[in-house]
TrEMBL record:
This is LacI family transcriptional regulator. Residues 1-24 are annotated as: Disordered. GO terms for molecular function: DNA-binding transcription factor activity; transcription cis-regulatory region binding. Keywords: DNA-binding, Transcription, Transcription regulation.
Amino acid sequence: MARADAGPVRGPRQGRPTLEEVAERAGVSRATVSRVVNGQTTVNEDLRRAVEAAADELGYVPHAAARSLVTHRTDSVALILPESPNRVFSDDQFFPSVIRGVATELDAAGKLLVLMTTGSAEARKRAERYAVGGHVDGVMFASLHDADLLPELMMRRGVPVVCNGLPQLDAPCIDVDHLGGVRAAVDYLIAQGRRRIATIAGPLDMVAGRARLDGYRAALAAADRRAIVAVGDFTAESGQAAMRQLLADEPDLDAVFVASDLMAHGALQALREAGRRVPDDVAVVGFDDIALATYSDPPLTTVRQPIARIGRTMARTMLRLLEGHDVEPMTILPTELVVRESA
């Protein structure tokens, strides 16, 4: 309970400290303060320290909008994820791991991360207005679908763009060795004596979905085997439904390569429902090596892709682009097969 005789509570200082007040406190000109706060390197070191000390004493913070007019930089970079918030922050650790990698690099460089999800037409319009309106210095896109026009639109408006999963754009792209990873997985199943190897492919309007299906088909063709294909959308529910379909269509299959760990989790549920033992009756291999793979039942053999490193590499590429350096048009990161009890 407040005391009856308590004096009035004073609010915060009215108005923010100005350049003039910092200049007066430091004993320098307003122009010198402006050069210091805008990061120019032509200021004498003693004067710089005096300005910084005065700014700290007064609690002066440069006005972001005014500073951006001088530097033409916001020191902010956007990461756009073309999914709904529910999908981005679901059980699939792909997006959180990418975000962590991006945030780590941007934080080390003193940049602010602006995260946007564009799972609806309205969200895409908001992201477009924000990015082309000069609120960020560049935009990164992760896990793109073919029909997404935002990257190309932003490039036409002069916004620097770095992508994951859409290499046909004339923008730097960071991805992983899908083909090599899938080939290693299918070759492993063949070496284990599996005869009828099916796949649950990812969305075919995404590079990852198509590339992993291509890798599966190539590996089976090299072994003179027939492809058995069902398609999901990288969710556990779609993996469960696709596995049920495969069991109905090909009841004697003895292995399945699944294009994501989350779909593989759903496939394992469907196999349990059908009374199939894993790996005795059906071997299962996933792709991603998210945390779910280690505590699924049984633990999942999977193709590990360096998800956080994708984010870090995207951020490093964007930072180099913003600094005016040349960057590689395509960077492919390695994958590796991690063998566990499911195969």
